Amino acid sequence: MAFEPDSAAEVVIEEETKGRGGRPHGFWKFLLAVGGFVLTIALTFLGLLAITFFIGRVIPIDPVLAVVGDRAPRAVYEAARVQMGLDQPLPIQFIRYIGSVLSGDLGMSVSTGKPVAQDLARVFPATLEMATLGIIIGVVLGVPMGVFAAARQGKLADQIIRVVGLLGYSVPAFWLGLVGLAVFYARLKWVGGPGRIDIFYDGLVQPVTGLLLIDSLIAGDFEIFMNAVWHLILPASVLGFFSLAYIARMTRSFMLDQLAQEYVTTARVKGVPERMVIWRHAFRPILVPLITVVALSYAGLLEGSVMIETVFSWPGIGNYLTTALLNADMNAVLGATLVIGAVFIAINKISDVLYRVLDPRAR
User: Fold this and answer.
1) CB 19 within 8 A of CB 67
2) Where is the signal peptide (predicted)?
3) Angle of the 25-58 helix axis to the 90-102 helix axis, nearest 10
4) What is the number of other CB atoms lying within 10 angstroms of the CB of residue 159?
5) Which of 144, 146, 155, 226 is the most buried (most CB within 10 A)?
6) What is the spatial distance between Cα 89 and Cα 38, in angstroms, rounded to a whole number?
7) Rounded distance, CA 273 to CA 250, Å?
8) Where do the domains of the chain lie, and which CATH numbers do they carry?
9) Cβ pair 85, 44 in contact under 8 A
10) pTM for the full predicted model
11) In whole angstroms, what is the distance from residue 48 CA to residue 151 CA?
């Protein structure tokens, strides 16, 4: 016969005992949260795999012809098709594709003759380096500009910052890159030209992280470091301009909403200095949504730098993807698309974690 507590106090004691025992409620909540987080990532990544797989089957490019050539005999074509597993039903091909990706096998690149995973490990750090400096420029300049524009709403400074934001949305990236090269490189000689580094420095630094700035510092070669910075400034600044426009606009919008709140009016009535009202009372509540904006902007720079890398001959993943498309190199195209999508997922999940850390209401 089951024991039933005789009073409400005993019920409370029993519940607290269950909660504080060997399996506390907080522990199970933590496990459920972690499990849900991992499951969300797994399902999202599975969806990404499905999209990249079916894109490769829908695009009117025959991967077999890309390997054997359009003049290969029929027997050679069929043998290559069987070897690549394209004679199997689509579900079987998809399962094999998942297995290959999870094992790190993204196939061979027709363009380079090397494994796609090896190519991506070589080119992605260049994009990461440029996009990281670009987002730093965007945050350092964009956030203060947005705050200043909101604090001066309707005045000349606000109008100028809004025009800068509008230009960032409307000016084509390739045009701005070409103008930047023509003015700051060809005319003024203030920055380095196309490429990641001058050709006579190429290969002198042993790659450790793949990030040329860090690797040159590790090697103790300050001359190569400065040359890499000289080449990086202009493309990163162009990317940073587009990031700046988006971040400044969103910061301004968030700040206008906070400055209209009653607690801000109360602080002003109490005689709190305007600078403190803006940065302590109004700016702090927008940090959480601002993190999401910065994360999305950073992910956009990583995946949307194709034009900039083409204009500046930057050896990153965008340039690699463009070359692969022109050569009908579907393994490289799908591999690059998969990496970009995985990075986008990772950045979004990191921003979600930061959101929960900074905002107790989201926990």
Assistant:
1) no
2) none
3) 120
4) 13
5) 146
6) 30
7) 25
8) 24-102 (no CATH), 116-362 (1.10.3720.10)
9) no
10) 0.80
11) 42
